[in-house]
Structure formats: structure tokens, C-alpha cells
Amino acid sequence: MRTPPTRTRSLGLGASIVVALSLAACTTATPDATGTGSTGSLSSGTALSTAGTSSATGDGCTNQPVAGPDADAVATIVDDAVAADGLQAVLYRVTRGDEVIAAGSVGESLPDEPAAAAMHFRGGNVAFAYLGTLLLLMAESGEVSLDDPISRWLPDLDVPDADAVTLEMLTNNTSGYPDYVRSEAFQTTYLDNPFVGFTPDQLLDFAMATPPWYLPGQGWSYAHTNYQILGAALAAAGGEPLEELLRTRVIEPMGLTGTEPVLGTDLPAPALQTYSAERGVYENTTWWNPSWQTAPGSVLSTDICDLAASARAVGRGDLLTEASYEAMIAPDTAQLPAAPETCPPDVCRQMTADQYYGLGVLVMQDWIVQRPLFGGMGAVQAYLPAQDLSVAVVATAGPDTEVGSNRAQPIWISIAEALTPDAVPSQ
After folding, report:
1. Domain 15-38+58-419's class?
2. Which of 4, 187, 228, 328 is most buried by its number of CB atoms within 10 A?
3. E strands within 342-421?
4. 137-192: per-residue pLDDT in tens?
5. Could you give the angle at which helices 200-208 and 184-192 cross, rounded to 10 degrees?
6. Which residue has the higher pLDDT, 67 or 90?
7. Residue 305 in contact with residue 63, Cβ under 8 Å?
8. Are the C-beta atoms of 166 and 146 separated by less than 8 Å?
9. Residue ranges of domains in the chain
10. d(Cα 268, Cα 76) in Å, to the nearest integer?
11. Cβ(360)–Cβ(171) under 8 Å?
12. Residues 6+ apart with CB under 8 A from 426
């Protein structure tokens, strides 16, 4: 582990951001760690606007059940998972090309209120795929370069290696920066009051209490820290608030009508209620603050229709040139050297040709994936290019569901076993 110079830092985004998200890019463990500090501020000068944060109603997402052998197979998989894992509810949607081949909802959002496709939920690290897309779009337009260091766009941000860590390294998690989600201080603060938000500065303080794990570009370790900095840098380069950049350049061009940036604990109605026992008692987590998930302006709400549509749009690179799409899914992280011995094996991971991290996306046996996990709600958006197959699954925990586990993932894997037996992702 390297010892960084003593610094102060400031992202100063002017918006409070709160804890609640998906930790799992290549792990399904709950956040574990404590880190204190008072080091900084991410000052991009952009604050998340409140305008439009509750406009989506989900009216466009009907997700009506469909008939056929594929639909029957997926319905059986979902029913079996609900019974085996004690799930509260599951929403799912599977498309092949433009055709919906399986869709439905099982279980309840609240007592006597069935779960429904129109319900909104937290998008979690699906936003990382959108940020990767936004970065590549801005590179295509010449606004930024993937090789730009942090210091070019955030010259006052005092973090280790700011002149060496590039926007590309932030996006593919090769910066070496620790993840604040693993900080015990963060976890303690979060679980003591999960309704309160964090500023980007506070989150950087939690992260940078631990020195970088390796030299920039010399390893791989999943860190929400990277996306806090990336979001601020893109906002600075684009000259607009991050939520506006995402809305006008990614969300609307993808045709997503039920997805939008949200402020604080906002969630458009109708909302899928979520639950977790991670604080030692089974409780409703719907209004836990999700601000720590990613940079302010990229904390999203979405619905199951958009999750499936987004899987395909991201997975095909619909908004990107062919060269940019190839860069997004390139196996560069699979070529990295072995993780340093000073980095714990559950932090620094060795990527392979079968499973590696691209620019905001995880590639698993040719599937292009994101897997949010927050407050007992796990989700998967996955796309298999060879078969033009999209899978979107959201699962909420019941009282007996394993704590800290994304139970949407085994449902997706079982769907792959049934529909694409030659392309089954590993756990």
C-alpha cells in the first residue's frame, strides 16, 4: 500500500448525497469498513436541481404477462426463487430484439398491494454505465479525452495522483482509490441513520483515510469513489449540471421515459417498497437516502421497462460510434498485472477474459451487465449481444432472505441457463 501526501480535497457539488446503493460490481457482499477523515470537497459548483425529479409516473410500463414456452420457463424460475429465497417481490422483463418474451411481477410491495411494473425503484450502479456512455460521447465530441487527468477538469481537487489518474481509469476502476463503502466509519455513520445524506466531500474523506492500493492503472478494485470524481469532472467539462448532461445526452436519447435523476430520498410514485434486515431488524428501506451510490445528478430512479431497454441500449452501444462501443467493452482490465500483495484479495481482483470491467460495465461470459444492490433490493440489467437478449430483474428481500446478497443475480443466471445454455455467466 502506498502512502499518499497529506492533502485536502474538495468536490463541492453543493448537494447533499446520502447512503443507499449497490455495492456489487464483482461481489455481492454488503459494505464493510470504517474510515474517518476530514479531507475534502469536490467543487464542481453544480447542484442537483429539484425540477422534474418526480415527473415520471410509470404509466408507460405495463409489463403485461406474455405467453409461450420462454415465458413459462422464466415464470417458473422466478416462482422457484421467490419460494427458495423468501423474497418479498420480484419484477422481471426479458426481451429478444424488440419482442417481449417474458414479463411479470410476483409478490407484494406492501401488504395487500401487489408489486407492479409501473413501480419505481433505485437505479444504483446502472448509472455507472450511463456515466461511461456520457464520457465516451464527450470524447467523441472532443470535449474531453479518455486520457485527461483529474487535474485538468478539477484543478483544485487535492487527491493522490490527480495528475496521473485519468478519466478512463476512474471509469474502469483502475485508479487505485479505496472505496468509501468499505470504510467502517462510513458504514457506522450510514447504518446509524440511513435517511441522512452525505456530501461528496464527506465520502472522499471516508475513502482517502486509506492510501491508494496501487499505482494508477496498475490494478483493478471496485470503488464508488471513482464515480464521485468522474461525475464532477464531466460536469466541469460539459459546463452543465451532471443531471442535465445525463438527461439530454443519455436518458432521453435512449428513449427511457421512466428514468430520472432524483434528489435526496425522492422516488416517483408509484414506488416499489424495499426491505432489509441489515441493521438487525427487518424494516422498510424505501426512503433510505441513496446519495452515496454515485455522483450527485446521477442518482437515478427507474422502472422495469427502462431497465430492460437500458440493458439493450447500453449493451449494443446505441448512442456510440463503433470505436467508442469497442472501447467500452474492451478487455483492457483483463491484461492488468496481478494485484499487489498489500491489497486484500476481496478488494483487488484479477480480471479474466471471461469476466472483466469495461468503461462503466461488467462483461461476464459476453453478457454486458450491471448489478445494483441497495437496502435489500437487488437488480440486474444484462444484455447478450449474440442473441440480442435483454434481461431485467429486480428482487426485494423478505424477512428470511440472506442479508447483503443480490438475489436478482441467481434469477438472471437461471434464466441464462434456460434460454442461452451456451452463454451462462458464473456466480
Report:
1. alpha beta
2. 228
3. 355-357, 362-364, 367-370, 373-374, 377-384, 389-396
4. 999 999 999 999 999 999 999 999 999 999 999 999 999 999 999 999 999 999 99
5. 140
6. 90
7. yes
8. yes
9. 15-38+58-419
10. 30
11. yes
12. 354, 355, 364, 365
According to DSSP, residue 204 is labeled H
The partner residues of 369 in beta bridges, in order of sequence, read 362, 382
C-alpha–C-alpha distance, residues 298 and 313, integer Å:
18
Contact by Cβ (8 Å): 54, 326: no
What are the phi and psi torsion angles at 261 (to 5°)?
Answer: -65, 145
Choice among 46-60, 97-111, 310-324, 374-388 with the minimum mean pLDDT: 46-60
**Among the listed residues 82, 122, 27, 123, the one whose alpha carbon sits nearest the alpha carbon of residue 407:** 82
Distance CA 96, CA 365 (A): 18
Compute and round to an integer the Cα radius of gyration of the chain: 20
pLDDT on residue 61: 87
pTM of the model: 0.88
Comparing C-alpha atoms, which of 117, 128, 121 is closest to residue 94? 117
Q: Rounded to whole angstroms, how far apart are CA atoms 374 and 276?
A: 9
Structure confidence by residue, pLDDT tens digits, 248-259: 999 999 999 999
- To the nearest 10°, the Cα dihedral for 355, 427, 122, 114? 150
Closest residue by Cα to residue 31 from 364, 393, 375: 375
Pairing type for strands 283-284 and 275-276 reads antiparallel
Confidence grade of residue 42 (pLDDT, cut at 50, 70, 90): low
Residue-by-residue DSSP string for 74-115 = HHHHHHHHHHHHT-SEEEEEEEETTEEEEEEEEEEEETTEE-
Cβ-based neighbour number of residue 29 at 10 Å = 13
On whether the CB atoms of residues 337 and 218 are closer than 8 A, the answer is yes
User: Residue 270's pLDDT band (boundaries 50, 70, 90)?
Assistant: very high
Asked if residue 200 lies in contact with residue 166, where contact means CB atoms within 8 angstroms, the answer is: no
Q: 369, 377, 122: which is closest to 262 by C-alpha?
A: 122
Cα 83 to Cα 44: distance, rounded to the nearest angstrom? 47
Separation between Cα atoms, residue 381 and residue 393, nearest integer Å:
7
